[in-house]
Amino acid sequence: MSEIIVHSIPGSPFGRAVMATLEEKGARYRLTPVMPGSMKTPQHLALHPFGRIPVLEYDGFRLYETQAILRYLDRLLQEPALTPAEPKRAARMDQVLNVCDWYLFQGCGSVIGFQRVVGPKLMGLKPDEAAIEAAMPRARAVFAELARLLDNQPFFAGEALSLADLHVMPQIDFFTLTPEWAELGAPYPNLVEWLKRMQARPSVVATTWERVADMAKAA
User: Fold this and answer.
1) Secondary structure of 98-113 in the HEC alphabet?
2) Residue 205 and residue 146: Cα distance in Å, rounded?
3) Which helix (H) or strand (E) holds 7?
4) Nearest Cα to 6, choosing from 66, 46, 86?
């Protein structure tokens, strides 16, 4: 079997979703770390023409866009299946995947997560409190909707883990590193309990920021 290579910035929630999926599949892979600030270089643009991460390489095939990578891995590595067979549950998974990209990250995690975690930790920046405050109404709406969609199920698509859980988990886990988590998580015990269950999974433990940083050092 050819080697699976993941190009990502250590700590990226999108890269983590890919690696956690590979861990769930029991697949061996190698991380090629991408350094912050290098995504617009000719070398990285040759991998991803829009200068983002992650990028997956396998058996001469290169793929970018996290959802595309997750779906590809679920088709390539068929056990355990991470897409429900029942159409409504599969549709719910698809919906949550898109909520994650378009609402949880865009204008929400991309602001609060960056201002509270990425900027200070990687760039030495001070949080822009005005930007965080402006993003909070959107964040409140997104967390309320995710809690509604989860309802009293163990996972977003029902009884079994799906790609939706693996995509959302790193984004919400980022929020636990911010003071805003106390406000955003507290009203939704179902979401808090779901996150605890996810954080206990070996795939999630294996892909913490610290673990991935160690992978990057060994690369």
Assistant:
1) HHHHHHHHHHHHHHHH
2) 23
3) strand 4-8
4) 66
Q: Describe the chain by its helix, strand, coil percentages, rounded to 5.
A: 60, 10, 30
Q: What is the pLDDT of residue 46?
A: 94
Closest Cα to residue 53, out of 21, 11, 12, 17? 12
In this structure, which topology does domain 87-201 adopt according to CATH?
Answer: Glutathione S-transferase Yfyf (Class Pi); Chain A, domain 2 (1.20.1050)
84, 162 in Cβ contact below 8 A?
yes
**Domain 4-81+204-218 top-level CATH class:** alpha beta
The domain spans of the chain are 4-81+204-218, 87-201
- Tell me if domain 4-81+204-218 and domain 87-201 are identical in fold: no
pLDDT tens figures, 50-95? 999 999 999 999 999 999 999 999 999 999 999 999 999 999 999 9
Would you say how long the chain is, in residues? 219
CA-CA distance, 134 to 77, in Å (whole number)?
Answer: 41
Q: Quick one: CA torsion of 3, 97, 84, 92, rounded to 10 degrees?
A: 180
